[in-house]
Amino acid sequence: MLDNYLNPAKPRYSDKIIQGDCLELFKRIPDNSIDMTFADPPFNLKKNYKSYKDSLEFQEYLNWCHQWISEMVRVTKPTGTIFLHNIPKWLTYYASFLNEIAFFKHWISWDASTSPMGKSLQPAHYGILFYGKEQKGTKINELRCQHKRDRKQGYLIKDYGGKKDKLHPFGPLISDVWKDIHRIKHNKNRDAHPCQLPIHLLDRLILLSTDENDIVLDPFIGTGTTAISAKRLGRNYIGFELDPFYVNIAKEKLLKTESNFKLGKSWVSFYLNEVITLRNKDWNSLKKYFLIPKPIRSIDNHKTILIDKKLIPINGNGKYIKKEDNKIDKFNFNIENTKRKKVQIRNLAINNKELV
Q1: Secondary structure of residue 133 in the 3-state scheme
Q2: DSSP assignment, residue 173?
Q3: What is the DSSP secondary structure assignment for residue 86, as one 8-state letter?
Q4: 247/253 Cα distance (integer angstroms)
Q5: 162: which DSSP letter?
Q6: What pLDDT sits at residue 304?
Q7: Alpha helices, DSSP H only, in the chain?
Q8: Where is pLDDT greater, at 25 or 2?
Q9: What is the end-to-end Cα distance of the chain in Å, rounded?
Q10: Cα torsion through 350, 305, 182, 301, rounded to 10
Q11: Nearest-CA neighbor of 92 among 70, 72, 71, 107?
Q12: Alpha carbon distance 321, 182 (integer Å)
């Protein structure tokens, strides 16, 4: 039975979360069959997992990691990508393994700082190693994220000087430092799992390195974040998880997930009622769904926004824009801009009064 749905050669792939030890389950996956592999393993920091030990001896942990990393590379296609998420300490060892059997592409720094307390050089980021199976031919898509803005005033944080006319209306191409994706900070948004990643982090990795119907494999699927991201972006997935409790949570969440994170025919990442990541090559077909400030230099204090919030998938059921809604949304857009300008004028008047 297991062999039937762990056969990526099937014309129509059957997505599954499988309970078991990843080293055993990897044996059922053919060589060069997966488009993207992603791993967020236990960090060996004595976290309180339900079914496995997170406090191995130093060398025991590294030996175990070497085994599943080797398997990830084996099953990845020649054009495929390998991502490993962890704290910098362990990633330095992972890189030493990977440099022997794969090809380094990038070290992505995910800025995920907590409250500014503790000591100097407090850890404030996680790393994501990005490797290709081969030196050339690795599938990488150019992505754009939104312009970074002041949360209260809405102005661009970065001063582009006289280059504002050349800015992209949606936002810049992503760099290897990601500051716009935050950790899950509220318990109401968390599953019963000690190390849950924000799903839009996986959205970005999947959009970066895969296309529709590609296969994504996560050997430590936990409560299903990678699988849910893959499904809602129109990709196939395989997930391994040792703990049956987490497997059940993942399966329940997947039942409520639809493949609907699209605008038109293009897959995008939504978060908090906005598009936060899109592929650069899709912009020409996507821009009709956005209200773009004109002239473009006014993007300094006017944000590119969706024409209609109905474009955003709600409860797994995305509904598309109706033409008659445009005037209402444009009116609301102008009202919001007017309100923002009034606030800015009022603040300026207060500041001038204080100076006098």
Answers
A1: coil
A2: B
A3: E
A4: 10
A5: G
A6: 92
A7: 2-5, 22-25, 58-75, 88-98, 199-209, 225-232, 244-255, 283-286, 326-355
A8: 25
A9: 80
A10: -30
A11: 107
A12: 29
The set of residues, in sequence order, having a beta carbon less than 8 Å from that of 17 and lying 6+ positions away, is 221, 224, 227, 239, 240, 241, 247, 250, 251, 254
Beta-bridged to residue 319, according to DSSP, are none
Output the six-digit token pair for 230: 């893959």
Q: Residue 270, SS3?
A: strand
Residue located via tokens 């990633």: 91
CATH number of this structure's domain 2-141+174-258, picked from the four choices 3.90.1150.10, 3.40.50.300, 3.40.1400.10, 3.40.50.150: 3.40.50.150
Question: Does residue 220 sit in helix, strand or coil?
Answer: coil
Other Cβ atoms closer than 10 A to 195: 16
Q: Decide: helix, strand or coil at residue 177.
A: strand
**Cα(240)–Cα(217) distance, integer angstroms:** 8
Tell me if the pTM is above 0.70: yes
Cα dist. 59→21, 42, 55 in Å? Answer: 20, 15, 11
DSSP state of 184: -
Mean pLDDT calculated for residue range 153-173: 87
Q: How does 322-333 read in b/e, with b if 16+ C-beta sit within 10 Å?
A: eeeeeeebeeeb
Specify the amino acid at residue 258.
Answer: E
Q: What's the confidence (pLDDT) of residue 188?
A: 57
**Do 171 and 276 meet the contact criterion of CB atoms below 8 Å apart?**
no
Q: Which amino acid is located at 44 in the chain?
A: N
Q: Would you call 161 helix, strand, or coil by DSSP?
A: helix
> What is the pLDDT, as a whole number, of residue 329?
36
The DSSP line for 267-332 is E-EEETTEEEEEEGGGHHHHGGGEE--SSGGGGGTS--EES-GGGS-BTTB-----GGGHHHHHHH
Q: Give per-residue pLDDT as tens, 241-292.
A: 999 999 999 999 999 999 999 999 999 999 888 999 999 999 999 999 999 9
